Amino acid sequence: MFDLLDIIGTMAFAMSGALTAMHKKLDPFGVFIIAFVTAVGGGTLRDVLIGRTPVVWMQDLKYVYVIILGFFLTILFRKRLDKLRTSLFLFDTIGLGVFTLIGLEKGIVTGLHPVICIALGTMTACFGGVLRDILCNEIPTIFRREIYATICIFGGIVFFGLKKLNLDNDILYLLTSVVIISVRLLAVKFKWYLPAFDHKNN
Amino acid sequence: MFDLLDIIGTMAFAMSGALTAMHKKLDPFGVFIIAFVTAVGGGTLRDVLIGRTPVVWMQDLKYVYVIILGFFLTILFRKRLDKLRTSLFLFDTIGLGVFTLIGLEKGIVTGLHPVICIALGTMTACFGGVLRDILCNEIPTIFRREIYATICIFGGIVFFGLKKLNLDNDILYLLTSVVIISVRLLAVKFKWYLPAFDHKNN
Amino acid sequence: MFDLLDIIGTMAFAMSGALTAMHKKLDPFGVFIIAFVTAVGGGTLRDVLIGRTPVVWMQDLKYVYVIILGFFLTILFRKRLDKLRTSLFLFDTIGLGVFTLIGLEKGIVTGLHPVICIALGTMTACFGGVLRDILCNEIPTIFRREIYATICIFGGIVFFGLKKLNLDNDILYLLTSVVIISVRLLAVKFKWYLPAFDHKNN
Start and end of every Glycine transporter domain (chains A, B, C) (predicted)? Predict the structure, then answer.
């Protein structure tokens, strides 16, 4: 189940990366690299910073195959993906939840402090997008208005809060995912965002 | 003493990063990440390249707390920080000296050649700023006019020169810091900078 | 022989990086860092992702010295390098072949799957240029029209195809390099490139 959600999330991230790159008029190689980086960039950064190398997608090729599949699907159906916008958004939100949990768990297994685990969860879920934006020569979206990352931090805090209740691990994971996914859906529905600083006028 | 200077430097780097991000009108999450990357990005890159993982701020949470404090101080006092410009500049210069020394020392402990140790010292002190500029979608300042990095290289050479004199370690550290900090102060006072190449006209 | 080609490739990459940085009007420190990153950035990323640290140029100083030499040669002869354009292009192409092979081999030694080895070969040959472009605040060239990276992937596939024939290692390496170098020369001569996606019009 969790593995399936991981694959769905990876696919959604890869497709959103590919779409961004196609809008930037990159060539197929560029589109593939941006899809790849969007999907596994956050987890790669996490693995490098905690020293778990070779990084995960080098040891488990399912990520590579899923991204290749997502890349071709995006190219083939690019005219029709606008109609699938809602499904893609849902899958992306599933990815947000699952990737945060994977990051949290890797931090715990490595024996790191909860604060660092929450940082790793957020990094896993959000820094693929940061790397995508850097490669596309943009200031990262999540540094501007999106509360994307804030939801992961919140999810991480909920996770460690629930963990103190000695819940079964499956229930702990399920609850945390549900919280992250629900808050994300509410955030988009009600247009929650962080206000930008306006240094000169404030 | 050295630990205190490390904290002062980290705080100054975090605050300068936060100010830059606020000028770019990022949201609080973006400002925090830029503050974080400016403060510990150089040391993180160093740790990753030499293979000392999990990277330093994952193992010693004082950096995280100092950056969080610097982040809130910058937000609270952002209108008044202009008046503290001189103090902030001094703290930043202290950071330059201390971070260079930390990088040099990590290189020596890892058994690397002096040339590489000097590179690591410079990286520790300067590449947080490089990563900050990349995330803010700018060509890094220190690649253009600033002699910031050149001072670290010079400091590293002085360090290995003095090291041959078999000085006590404390004195060696003190002298190197004083040299780096003094040259930086002189450089700013007398507006020393490296001339840019102008490929077409030269 | 192979070592010599490695040095020639490193020198060519460093010089092309230095030229790019000088066109961007960076100062000498910036030019040096861009030269350095262009030359060893791909290999550094590869080493970090597979966990071979300290990264290669920290352990084998020949790279540092070759880059320093390339940096000074570029500065001294910058007015005349246009006349050497053909030689530089040839050396760059040699670098493409050699670096791909080095990446492939490191992947094999690390025990990774052929698909990942091909990714590592491509990364070693092409991602120095990606990092150079990011530092110069450009969307990476190889993501737009260049088939540079595609040639490395093709070379990697040829390598594993030939490997099944149980050729002698030297012949295997020679053949793969010749293939990569020839395809690159043909690609430039006949202006082969990948078409960019134009999301709106397609």
Answer: 4-78, 90-163
Looking at chain A, the number of H-run helices and the number of E-run strands are 8, 0
- Cβ distance A182 to A151 under 8 Å? no
Name all chains with 3 or more CB-CB pairs below 8 Å to chain B: A, C
Residue of chain A minimizing CA distance to B31:
A143
> Given a cut of 60, is residue C59 above it in pLDDT?
yes
Residue-wise DSSP of A164-195: TTT--HHHHHHHHHHHHHHHHHHHHHTT--PP
> pLDDT digit string (tens) for C108-122?
999 999 999 999 999
Closest CA relative to residue B41, chosen from B20, B22, B72: B20
Interface test with A, best of B16, B24, B27, B32 (most A CBs within 10 A): B27
Chains B and C form CB pairs within 8 A to the count of 85
On the CB side of C46, how many CA atoms lie within 13 Å of its CA?
Answer: 32
Interacting residues of B46 by C-beta distance below 8 A, sequence separation 6+: B103, B106, B120, B123, B124, B127
Per-residue pLDDT tens digits for B44-54: 999 999 999 99
ipTM associated with this complex: 0.89
What's residue C201's pLDDT? 43
What pLDDT, on a 0 to 100 scale, did the predictor assign at position C116? 96
Q: C134 to chain B: which residues are within 8 Å by CB?
A: 134
Q: How far is CA B48 from the centre of its chain?
A: 17
Q: Which of residues 84-123 of A touch B (CB under 8 A)?
A: 110, 112-113, 115-116
Q: Does C37 touch chain A (CB under 8 A)?
A: no
SS3 B195: coil
- Asked if the peptide bond before residue B54 counts as cis, ω within 30 degrees of 0, the response is yes
Give the residue-averaged pLDDT of A136-158.
88
Which ranges constitute the DSSP H helices of C2-136?
2-23, 28-50, 56-59, 62-76, 85-109, 114-135
pLDDT value at A189 more than 70: yes
List the single residue in A23, A25, A48 with the smallest CB-CB distance to C49: A48
Question: pTM of whole model > 0.90?
Answer: yes
CA A72/CA C199 separation, integer angstroms: 14
pLDDT band at A201; cut points 50, 70, 90: very low
Q: Across all residues in chain A, what is the average pLDDT?
A: 89
List CB contacts (< 8 A) between A46 and chain B.
none
Distances (CA, A) of C46 to A129, A163, B2, C106, C121: 21, 37, 35, 9, 9
pLDDT tier for residue A1 given thresholds of 50, 70 and 90: low
A63: closest CA among C42, C116, C124?
Answer: C116
